[in-house]
Design goal:
2 copies of one chain form a homodimer.
Chain A (H helix, E strand, L loop, with lengths): L8 H19 L10 H12 L5 H12 L9 H25 L3 E2 L2 E2 L1 H8 L6 H25 L5 H29 L8 H28 L3 H31 L7 H5 L4 H8 L3 H12 L5 H13 L2 H20 L6 H21 L5
Antiparallel strand pairs in A: 1-2
Chain lengths: 364, 364
Amino acid sequence: MLMRGLPKPETLQAAFENHLQRFFAQHQASFRYGEMLEPIFYDLCEFVGRKGKRIRPLLFLLTHRALGGEKPENDEGLLDCAVALELLHSFILIHDDVIDRSETRRGLPTFHKLAERRLSVLSAAERTGRNVAIVVGDMVFALAVKTLHEADVEPVVRNEMVSQFLAYAADTGGGEIFDVLMGVRDITRVSAEDVAKMYYLKTTRYTFEAPCVMGAMLAGVGKAQVEALRRVTEPLGLAFQIDNDLQEFARFVSGDLSSSADLLEGKKTFLMLEAYEHLDEVDRTFLQMCLSAPTRTESTILKIQGLVRKADAVSRLRNRSLELFSKAESAVADEAWTEAQQLGLAEVFRAVRSRFTALSTRAV
Amino acid sequence: MLMRGLPKPETLQAAFENHLQRFFAQHQASFRYGEMLEPIFYDLCEFVGRKGKRIRPLLFLLTHRALGGEKPENDEGLLDCAVALELLHSFILIHDDVIDRSETRRGLPTFHKLAERRLSVLSAAERTGRNVAIVVGDMVFALAVKTLHEADVEPVVRNEMVSQFLAYAADTGGGEIFDVLMGVRDITRVSAEDVAKMYYLKTTRYTFEAPCVMGAMLAGVGKAQVEALRRVTEPLGLAFQIDNDLQEFARFVSGDLSSSADLLEGKKTFLMLEAYEHLDEVDRTFLQMCLSAPTRTESTILKIQGLVRKADAVSRLRNRSLELFSKAESAVADEAWTEAQQLGLAEVFRAVRSRFTALSTRAV
């Protein structure tokens, strides 16, 4: 049960999806670069329109409301800010998928794979598909910033929001490079702190902090309250990321290889670090070799699974995730907020968490 | 001789280069993502700091002054806007070079090649270098928008400038996709109009129109005057692009293969279109085959050169470029501007043109 005044996430998501469809209908004209580019625009609408968890728009709209902001369902300005956050996410996914050469996203082809299909008659379709996706990602980023910059909300706050939004985007890039560089680094030279810092920059900042901080700013709260929010979103983001690692691993164990890009790429996830830390010397060396090989075969992956089990890494991390959720929960009880605000925020994070858990096996 | 009050391009460029160095020194802290990323920041400073023609910053600062704006040399706000334009250009170059897999830029390694060198011990250095460059490009774009958004200039105009800047960036993306798609299309299905439209979107908009329009907006001119500017920059941009094609071809004929990415990639440049249009059926078929092959060998390239000569495409295009420069010159004599403004603008475009011609064999 949500507290009185806080809209149900389902109602809010429906309003958001409607607004997103209207947004694309309005922006079709600005993508009129001739018939060659039309199919690419339709692919983009389909890609962004895929039903994901919409964590960022919902977190933004709910936090804004919980801290005393206006009813969000029919507010065009607020919904545009929410669209900007979702477009930022889409841009990041499009480039991320090119970088990782992932083939599926939310159970359907990644954007560069969609572009590749459009070009399937060509010999260079694969590379051309990735090239188109790099540029479409850039355009979506430009559109995200433009949407926020022109949103019909209080101009002084909006100005500050645009600055923050761009700083979040840059940090996400910093985290992404971190991820790429750690991916090619030997596991013996990567620490759990490195991984935590990488995820903080790459995911937590734009997924949890940006929506909450922007929602709070528009609700008119002060600096101390914004700072207090960051003390909630940092453990929350880390907890979600660990959950994400665990869910990916569970899907993988159940036989769904397509959603296991991280494992296939040999990424240094929390799970790998946790396993590595709790194995003996022989097993460590083996894990190290598996991860540093240029590609991983099915039997290598099965061996990695075995080592993860042997180190009891899953239950260790599950406990760590629960601890972090508790830490976030305690941080909500901060005197920077009124009691009503604390109740509202606790409600928001519970709603987002249950949503994440319920949908996470379908979409990431 | 420049008219009184209009600073010399050399003086202005010196002020710009100084400001750019200070800018990077100030922004070093915001790139502090740990020791792993430090070398990448230094590579970025070197890349952006390379002495190019700086057409965009100079065009912005000179147009602003010619239309009655303040002296630009010591104005931090104006210089920040100029930096934003140069960063937009750097971002576009970084992604463009990844897409074309170019190896040199301004006589030095492209950004992804710099990143690749940093990673040279790795087996996947080449791909990882490109991945790093994709993300660094994204971060530079974010930094460009942020710099403009936070520049100390008149806030109402700045707001409108940010919207325009983002629209220009999106159009550049549209032109880039156009370019990618035309690159893999058969020359029989590409028209000179397509190529002109592609260059207008991909280059003219952000290289000529954006700096001039933004300079004019800050100088406080009205809508009609901004519209009149666009009638100058459109033929000017096309003329520069044709010159660029011709210069690349000349460098290539003189034996400098490294600066001929377009030819090596089989791009549909004005030169190729012009040659194709003026050849007989047999030669056309041959040119078509040369361009559509997955890669071009030295002997293919020599054959293409021969066909370009046979069609007399170089002198035809040189005439076309001169016509377009004249068209731009006539468009300056527009009653939307005062006589002093007309004289100033004519001076600006002459200065940029001579600068372009003088430096063009060194850097693009």
